[in-house]
């Protein structure tokens, strides 16, 4: 019985964490930051590449 309760608790916590991560990932600010970082990496100052 305690194992079942523990499993249910873990499942609930995992669900909360996943939903939080999804909300965080699809927040417009983070998306804007990611696009900006990618653009900076692509078109920013060139590093010496071999």
Describe the largest sheet.
none
C-alpha-based Rg, rounded: 20 Å
- The whole-number mean of residue pLDDT values reads 85
The level of helicity is over 70%
Separate helix tally? 2
Form type: rod-shaped
Structure in words:
The protein is an all-alpha fold and 50 residues long. 80% of the residues lie in helices and 0% in strands. The chain is built from 2 helices and no strands. The protein has helices spanning 2-25, 28-43. The model has no long low-confidence stretch (mean pLDDT 85).
Task: Please sum up the structure shown.
This protein has 50 residues and is mainly alpha-helical. Helix content is 80%, strand content 0%.
Explain the layout of strands and helices.
Elements: H1 2-25, H2 28-43
Question: Characteristics of this structure?
Answer:
single chain; 50 residues; mainly alpha; 2 helices; 80% helix; 0% strand; rod-shaped
